[in-house]
Fold these 4 entries.
Entry 1:
Amino acid sequence: MNPLTIDIGSCRYQALIGVGGIGSGMFFRLNGDATLGREESRSGCFIDRKDYCKLHIIAHYVRALLGPDFHTIPVGRVGDDDIGARLVHEMAEDGLDTTYVERTQGSQTLFSFCFIYPDGGGGNMTTCDSACSRVDPEYVRRSAAEFERYAGRGIALAAPEVSLEARGELLGLATRHGFLRAASFTSEEMPRVVRSSLLESVDLLAINLDEAAAAAGLRVEGTEAQTVIEAAVRTFSAKNPAIQVSITMGKNGSCCWDGNGAVWKPAGKVRVESTAGAGDAFFAGLIAGIAAGLPLHAAQELATLAGGDSVQSPHTINKNLDRISLRRLCAQSHIDISPEVHSLMEDPR
């Protein structure tokens, strides 16, 4: 692994503490593009893809980009099953601090069954009674000593696939200890989030276009992306005038709002194996860039590279993503990046 060339000791942020989903899944390719019927039996085949959940994906990429001197601490639960044991082992092997990842007796690890049509569309079915559903505010408070340890020098990550209450507790700890507070919410959660006070405890919000539309009470279909984004930013800013917002739009790139204006970045032209997990890789690139001292618009460039590199793997975590692979991608896809991002990817030798 070749992390970014940064001096962690001189950086404002030196640790990430996060909650979110830790789990696995499998992919099944259906035969035929017709939408699966309610009582239909359909043949197909399993696809050799490894699936991971949001907290694991984001934490892995942050660790891969920033290296071992940046302390990456996931807080979550897996089941007392073989999948949970494998995930905890894999996280530790990749350098994540699994002190607060508990194997919970009597629970199953979060699991998704993803089905894919030949045209690339599809959906998934995810367990709602997994160990992740038992990550509650009390469990999150177990990590309070880490917030004290990194007070004023940490980034808190509140990712989906655990309850809003658990994420709210993490953001509260982060507020009390001077952390940068980064969060993401699903489209289903957005109406409740907007009605609540959660956004007042978020410094950096990273979502996709559909989630932005849900926050603004709009539909993506038939609405221009710029209209959706402007409406969403107005909604978020009304709750928290200081909030910074990142909105991904798949192959159409991304838009970041820093409180003063919006910066649009195109996506790189890359070979795509799977887009699953690309938004999480993008979010990790944003976090890594900010931890490295980049302003939001430059962190957005690093995030674009991370998202582009992630889709070149069939798995939701591209284990080959590092400084060297990002540098190669930048050269091959002609993604326009600033000198400060280039310097992070230089070989220190």
Entry 2:
Amino acid sequence: MAVTLNDIATKAGLSISTVSRVLNKKSARSRISRGTEKLVLKTAKELNYRPNQLARGLRLKRTHTLGLVVPDISNPFFAYITKSIQNVSHRLGYSLVVCDTDENLPLEIEHTNLLASKGVDGLIVLPVGQKYAHLEALLRNGTPLVVVDRSFDSLETSTVIIDNYGGAFEATEFLIRNGHKRMAIIQGLPDTFTSRGRLQGFLDAHEKHSLHVDPHLVVGRDFRKETGYIETKFLLSLEHRPTAIFTTSDLITLGALEAIIEEGIEVPRDLSIMAFDDLESVAYFRCPITAVAQPKENMGEIAVKLLLDQIRHPDRSEPKRIVLKPKLIVRESVGQIGEPVGTHDVHGGELVSS
């Protein structure tokens, strides 16, 4: 049977109201002596008292629980962000309920509605990225909401995103500076915020240098490993192969590398690889991968703090749009073809050798 305030009061020889004030951290306001406070806390510890969070939540109209909806927990990028959000939430006194939508919009709608109905204090959603009417409905109902990664320009809520365009532009220019003119890109889910930005950065870098983009080299249908594998197989089957492939997610990169190994191709001797996202293990591959690294841990921590700001100050919390800058980490997977085009950095980005 759970220990109650009455049990503590009886053992300590105090009133229930005194015990309640101490455990609710109101000793100073209620002018309770330091000795009495120590006695209550000692007795509570001896009895292994655990506060009834449900009852407390009903009184305060809060559950101290946050909801997190992610598109694919098996994706290292989302797994890392989930871990960051979990750590920060726990540190700040909140529990976290995580739902995986498996990149499925109907399931995303179901999960967000379910979490809201269960009374979570707020939601962090990493959406599939195709539609957002269900998120607008949550906002109309007063549910605190922060959107991370794949955002929507018309959705009026706080967001945490990466400069996808700038990161892809810089990565593509790095390939161009190393002499590459025939480059392929394996994009993620088309017409989502993330994919649009990365694809446009790729295309605009070509345009800046008056390079033609072969439409056969723009491929990809989602962010999964299978897409990386299948599309790389296709690209390597072309009569005029690309000299470099730009993979736009961790899982796409892993699938592409699997196909490359099967084809007996040597990186970077036969083919250069540039990746968006940066798996922790890529630095230890047989050929360490040059990558656009996203500040994943910062994304998770900022998202939690934006959400708690909404929860604690609903009347004065204006939507905030936080854009984080990725870094191009240069390793060994990009080979040089002919003479280098130039050495200047692009958009003030930071080149990091590893």
Entry 3:
Amino acid sequence: MHGSTVNPGAAASLILNRIVYAVNWFSLAAVFSLIASEFNQNISGLGLATAAFYVSIGIFQVPGGILAASIGPRLTAICGTIVASLSVLLTGFAHSLVEIVVLRFFVGLGMAFVFSPGVILITRFLRKGSQGLGVGLYNSAFYIGSAAGLSGWSIFASLVGWRASLIAGGLLGLFTSVLILISVPKDTWHSNFKVDFLQLKRVLSNKWLITLSVTLLGLGVGNTVVGNFMPYYLEDAIHISAGEAGTIASTTSLSALATAPFWGKLFDKVSDAKQLLLASGVLMAIGVGIASLGTIYSAVLSGVLVGLAAGSGYTFGYSAVRVAKGIDREYETLAVSWVNSISLLGNFVPPLCFSYMVIQCGYSFSWLFLAVLTSAFMIPLLLVCAVPSSPYRE
């Protein structure tokens, strides 16, 4: 990576922040069986906590993008990391499911202020022509963290307890905020920024950005449910240990990790966003549907396919934000935030639907339903006649 990097220290701190960010995203799912046992809860409790997280992280994407345009992506990412990390830390002291749900809302709020600034910052610290690789590396860091959160934290929690494991994740997050403060150069271009409502309207009404949002929402339907429910599903339905369940669930992250940089390089060379995203959507639907077979082997295969689809789809999607025309440089963070907002906010529904359908109809039907839903969200992409072909930052 060094040969493509103009500021290795800054890039490294952002990647480490992204790893811990992902750990704190998935650690609750990894330890929820222990929480459910202590608080006498079932899968519906995990559904509520997950939904609260996605509502928050979706709602606050656009405010986060506006804030980044006002005070700069560096300071915005630092503030968001502090809020998310403190909320994760305090979850370790929770005494009821209600407290956990409220704190997960604040975890989502903080994380909403981190991702889009991080995407913009990481591409700045890579040489021209390597922006797709930068997004791929940034996504790879997320998959490292999600694998650690699902597998490592389930084992860690079995040794030290779920409370101590969450407190440790929160402390790690606070540490990465200090690293960004020290190593990432201060923003300079934002000092004269004022909200231009005409430019804001161009971003929010851009058809290509909206199409990308819906497509990523479809990918997120599968990725959200597999990523957050697979550990609990394996323990509850297939009756394996928390450590084994976390390890199997982490195959999603590991397969995405292994291929995300490749997808970034592919986008830099091909740039046919429509076809690349369609292929990712089909693969995601197949991966989610395979989980309905109800065996350890199908769970592993499902995890691998979902990981491949997520690694490719998100890399293609966020890289393709750059080809939206008519958007000023100061609004590039907002463009990413807008795409993220729709895709993440919509993902508060699948956890609630999945947990409800599991109780009413069982796991097999629920997995198949989510596979069909993933496919349905690819339809708007099929209807796009002309895909932008040149970056808005030239």
Entry 4:
Amino acid sequence: MSFNNSIVDNYILASILEVSNYSNVKLTEKTIYKNNYQYFFMPSNMINDNFDHHPLDTYGIINKSKLLMREPITGDQISYIINNTEFTSTNETSGLVIETKISKIFYLYEIKNMPHKYANSIFTNLKSKNINIVFPSNDIIHVISDNINNLNKYVKKLSNKILDINSILEIKIPKEIIINKNNKIINNINIMNDTFLGMTYQLTQILKILSKDIKSPIKASENNTNYINKLFFTFYNFIPNFLSSLIFKFLLRLNKTYNFSNQVLEIDNLYNFENYFFSNSIDEEYLTNGYIKGKFLPRIKLLDKNKDLKDILSNENTIICSSDLSLKSTSDVIYLKAPSNKNKEGHNVSQSTFDLLNLDERYYVVSQSGLIMMIDLNKNLNDKSNASSLDSQYTDKKQISLDSFNTKNFKPSLPKLPKPRVSFNWPFRAKKQ
């Protein structure tokens, strides 16, 4: 079951589905949308070629009117979409219906004819991370916030003009959605992020997974290294500006650039079919380049078929491995090889892709949507041919406890210190001389 011919009650949700190449998406009649355009973010590799988009190359951290840091975006390419589709309305309730239970309101203001040098960039603040400033072209700026006063403050700083209240666009992003099939609930999805970029990006990633199995109980959680950033952000306002850039550079190296930037932008989520989980590097020899359980495989081009790897993923658990391995079953195994290895069976990928995945040493178990379910060393495969029965060979007890830790009802707090015991006599008596 896919999202084709689905009925939704949210314009942004409908637009995300359409841009992701799902056809005949309709809106419920009760949906009211005053804007001519829909605005959102999503991974560039999910966008239908028919839609224009603005790939983002750099991100920036601002404090009031000062740009503290501007760095390139690493990892998956993010794109900013401006879509003007007019969807058909319907009063039908049969078939696949996606209903918004809780939504979060954002406000967008467009500053036109304002030349700048930040095209294809996005800036955010760290005080509350409730502002996204997008530069889709050389003379247009979009300011997005969940607070009108905050919106007004940044518009005035950027343009030196007072915000026109009548030109503010109100955008509702689903925070919780229910998926119905013929009036029967088949799934409930919660969006854990809070920023405009983070919410729309996470929504597109979850829809990507559900497009292959719409009943999957998919959940999202943050990578545990995110809390290193959050600890710093909590005390950010007490740090002098002249020290901020130095601390940012330190965090870039401590967390690795990929982790730091993606966490600041709220796109560093992990996805799981069961419980919320953390994941951290057990050992550098096991994990590399950020490819861990709960992340998506990168876009992999199959040179011999002129297709992407995602186009031939047919089973829920598929082994992706080097053609140097030989497994008994081929129904749930996809062999990849570098062009230099002509004598082996399998699909050709570029040498850089083969090296990036480090297929000489490890194999991957992925879902039909390309979500990594497991990574293990080739030496642990031992010719096991049924991917659904594979268990990780890692024995690190700390990691197992982190992966299975359910944070749904967990609220971090400081430990309560024991109260000091003070002994004294009552009533007080003056000391005898």
